């Protein structure tokens, strides 16, 4: 007869202070629209009022900034010049930019250039 008692596995010793590995899908990035706004407005002020330079900046920063996550904030910045507070007014304590639709000249050519 064969004894099945030898088939039991011995438990391996563990070290105290062991770190558990987390998967990338389990790591959550913090939602911080003010930091996103600061990065966008800083880039827009560096480019000036040239819409070609603004488009190049937005294309280049799209790889490192998450436009999908902060789409509402990006829309507020490009249209109104900053993040909107509840009620539709610009937040007073936030940074603002002059490269936006609300600060542009009110003629057809300028509006078409902003739309493109």
Sheet/helix structural class: mainly alpha
Question: What is the helical fraction, as a range of percent?
Answer: 25-40%
- Return residue spans where pLDDT drops below 50 for at least 5 consecutive residues: none
The helix count comes to 4
Query: How many separate domains?
Result: 1
Distance between the termini: 84 Å
Region (Disordered): 1-31
Pfam families: HEAT_5MP1_2
Protein name: BZW1 isoform 11
Biased composition (Polar residues): 1-19
Task: Explain how this protein is built.
With 116 residues, the chain is mainly α. It has one domain (31-112). 38% of the residues lie in helices and 0% in strands. The protein contains 4 helices and no strands. It has helices at 33-47, 51-61, 71-80, 108-115. Helix 1 packs antiparallel against helix 2 (51-61). The longest helix is centred in the middle third of the chain and has 15 residues, at 33-47. The chain is elongated, with a radius of gyration of 26 Å. It starts with 32 loop residues before the first helix and ends with a helix. The model has no long low-confidence stretch (mean pLDDT 78). This is BZW1 isoform 11. Residues 1-31 are annotated as: Disordered. Residues 20-116 form the 5MP1/2-like HEAT domain. Residues 1-19 have a biased composition (Polar residues). Pfam families: HEAT_5MP1_2 (PF25504).
